């Protein structure tokens, strides 16, 4: 999901495919190592050593996912040195935010609606706001997609869609809790896909589907059940949440993204606000609702694995719900402050920020085959082919 799913999801830009996949590769490889250290100091530092294992590897993957979500908001407008500096800061803040929520507040967030999606999205959006480029119109002709770039991006979508149930359930308790997480995610994804197709046709020109909607909003179902997937959401609840997320995400791409840039000066390249931001907040609120309804009768012996403090009598369902809500505000605070600080750091003049006229262009940072031969970029005419033959 991290290397293939996120990487190919972002290759929709017609002249930024090398950078989308390549910088995803670079950022994820860096974030995995740095996160292992940061999270290790916070979670598994014993007797002067950081203890690592499968769980620490998965947690590092989750952190890399948040970094790549933020990358999507500034895609095409930043260089590799800027992105590595962004990851350096974001991994630290991600680790602290996760520690505060999961260990100090006892918040439940199995699939990371708050810790991964909301944090990554709003960190990236605030970062994009600080890095706002009023002259980005000079590169607007490269912001669109072409047929094959959208097709490659759709491969990333399908890859993410297939593996999202295992993503959400990776760290949940073995047995019923893990099965419930996978099933809730599965149903939610299916419903968000239907909602996306329905709304895309409804708001599209002449009733035609928009590939941008399908590539992104169809995945919103996996985001919206991140917090509540291990809880007693029920299949109907998962379906309803997924359909709502797909609908909200599609409408966001159609109507809210232009407003975000024109009114709020946020240039969100990949639309992370629609796929991760709004569904992430909805997922956190859904978690508040489902946590508030938790009872011993509904969960039976499984209550201890989902809500151990409620099972032990140290906390009521209502107080758990309030702390879930407080966790959302803590996440938004860390993301906003961190994104603002990161934006100021990334504006340092010695970093390799591409000029306004060269954004969304691979040739700034990559050797592109045929870049010095215009003829290599166009197909041979019939008579030329015959001559060469």
Automatic annotation (TrEMBL):
Q: Which parts of the sequence belong to the Ammonium transporter AmtB-like domain?
A: 1-348
Q: InterPro entries from the xrefs?
A: Ammonium/urea_transptr, NH4_transpt_AmtB-like_dom, RhesusRHD
Its catalytic activity?
Answer: methylamine(out) = methylamine(in); NH4(+)(in) = NH4(+)(out); CO2(out) = CO2(in)
Q: Which Gene3D superfamilies match?
A: Ammonium transporter AmtB like domains
Q: How does it sit in the membrane?
A: Multi-pass membrane protein
Q: Name one GO biological process term.
A: transepithelial ammonium transport
Compartments where located: Basolateral cell membrane
State the residue spans of region: Disordered. 370-389
CC terms in the record's Gene Ontology section: basolateral plasma membrane; spectrin-associated cytoskeleton
Transmembrane feature ranges: 56-76, 83-105, 111-132, 144-164, 184-203, 236-256, 276-295, 325-346
Which residue ranges have biased composition labelled Basic and acidic residues?
375-389
Q: Which GO terms describe its molecular function?
A: ammonium channel activity; ankyrin binding; carbon dioxide transmembrane transporter activity
Q: Which UniProt keywords are present, listed alphabetically?
A: Ammonia transport, Cell membrane, Glycoprotein, Membrane, Transmembrane, Transmembrane helix, Transport
Q: Does the keyword Hydrolase apply?
A: no
Function statement: Ammonium transporter involved in the maintenance of acid-base homeostasis. Transports ammonium and its related derivative methylammonium across the basolateral plasma membrane of epithelial cells likely contributing to renal transepithelial ammonia transport and ammonia metabolism. May transport either NH4(+) or NH3 ammonia species predominantly mediating an electrogenic NH4(+) transport. May act as a CO2 channel providing for renal acid secretion.
Family under the similarity heading: Belongs to the ammonium transporter (TC 2.A.49) family. Rh subfamily.
Q: How does it assemble?
A: Interacts (via C-terminus) with ANK2 and ANK3; required for targeting to the basolateral membrane.
Protein's recorded name: Ammonium transporter Rh type B
Encoding gene (name) = RHBG
